Known about the structure:
Layout: H1 7-18, H2 25-34, H3 41-51, H4 56-104
Helix pairs in contact: 1-2
Amino acid sequence: MLKGENMEYIYAALLLDSLGKEINEENMKNVVKAAGKEPDEAMIKAVVNSLKGVNIKEVIKNAQAQQVVQQAAPQQAQAQEKKEEKAEEKKSEEEAAGGLASLFG
Length: 105
């Protein structure tokens, strides 16, 4: 829907949300005008309609949490691999010690 050159409409919506203002066509139009761009009525209408009922703060919070989980997953996998390696190493040492005991037993 939005290309890089139309991000000002998303920025306008984020700004309005952060200020606690209603995200409606008139407010979006005013913000885009204030930024020095001629508002595209169709784009404003599309953005406003697509954001109806969306809690922007919640979406951002969830996106940040998801990013943290994605970053933590590889670290947890590495920690698990290290635990498994230590367990295998200990098992090998025990087997070796048992083998030596049978020589002298």
